[in-house]
Amino acid sequence: xxxxxxxxxxxxxxxxAVLMTTHGALAQTTIDSAAKPYFIAGGxxxxxxxxxxxxxxxxxxxxYRRIAATAAQWPIVTGKVVSSExxxxxxxxxxxxxxxxxxxxxxVDGTSRNGRVIRAGLGDRGYPREQQARDDAARYCVxxxxxxxxxxxxxxxxxxxxxxxxAGNNLVAGVLLMLVGAGGVVFTVFSxxxxxx
Length: 197
Hints:
alpha+beta; 2 domains; five-stranded antiparallel beta sheet
């Protein structure tokens, strides 16, 4: 979320530029003939970037919510834990976070499958405290049998636990980035139609 926040702050500059271009004389002195192509290219690149990242986050949010809503009805098979560990990720913006990683195998219709999802979204976000991640990983000891819920439409999708982590944050960040992208569209259009000085 903090990384998305930085992107949003960067996009604020784009929106300020949009406001500048809406005032005729100021726009003409700001966007001269030599700088105009750079404004147009910059606006287009910012638009594509923010809209793409925003759409990706919204898709991810929807996927987590869909899994959380449907996993309770998924069939359950018995799987076996192959590995269980905690991975530390260093993030200069939001600090270190810890992700429990569990690798398990299960069979559906005689086909062996590999699963790595404990709960939808947990692998992306993790925990701010290491002990929380260790508590999660400790529930899944190597060699132990675990109930695995799998998607009957796509048996490669499986979870060990119901619920999801991070769908709300991804949705909010995605919508905000899409709005910044929309600001980039406005900025690009104004850059095109504003006469150079």
